[in-house]
Write a structure and sequence with these properties.
Structural class: alpha+beta
Distance between the termini: 17 Å
Number of domains: 1
Oligomer: single chain
Number of helices: 3
Helix content: 10-25%
């Protein structure tokens, strides 16, 4: 099995890392040896997320068909506590792009994932944005967890368990 991780912090044009008013964007890539439609379907189905995201206990969706504007709530265990985080789907372009943003809570990340067919499977590129000081303090930890989560997704998809 071959996979690629490329992680870097990117800053908006004209901004520097010393400007705490900027929002850091954390980029992560992984290649999953499955067809693009299967990878997109697993990510876009929020009910699969507890199977591959550590600390996510359940996902409740509040809409019919998945798409932009669909809302729901993630129930997560963080720092020894259970918390509810409302979210909204912000991108839904099968099978090329999917995104979300947190609507409430102490940390309100957003992410956009892009999917691209490659000879070895599907390249997933994630751009995670964590606003405010929380982004500078917790963003690197969130990125580390995101890498683990996507490795778990990769394993589940490539072994046919998802």
């Amino acid at each position: 099995m071959r996979f690629v991780y490329i992680c870097q912090i990117m800053f908006g044009q004209g901004r520097s890392s010393s400007d705490l008013n900027t929002m850091p964007v954390f980029r992560h890539e992984i290649v999953i040896q499955r067809p693009i439609d299967a990878v997109f379907a697993a990510v876009a189905d929020v009910h699969t997320h507890p199977k591959w995201q550590a600390g996510l206990l359940e996902t409740e969706s509040r809409g019919g068909a998945p798409g932009v504007g669909e809302t729901g709530v993630e129930v997560r265990r963080m720092f020894g506590r259970v918390a509810r985080f409302p979210y909204e789907i912000t991108r839904f372009e099968p099978p090329q792009a999917w995104g979300f943003r947190a609507l409430d809570g102490p940390i309100r990340p957003s992410a956009v994932l892009h999917f691209k067919s490659t000879p070895s499977g599907t390249l997933v590129t994630s751009h995670l944005t964590v606003p405010g000081v929380a982004g500078w303090l917790l963003g690197p930890l969130m990125l580390r967890q995101q890498r683990r989560n996507y490795q778990c997704l990769k394993t589940l998809l490539e072994t046919g368990k998802l």
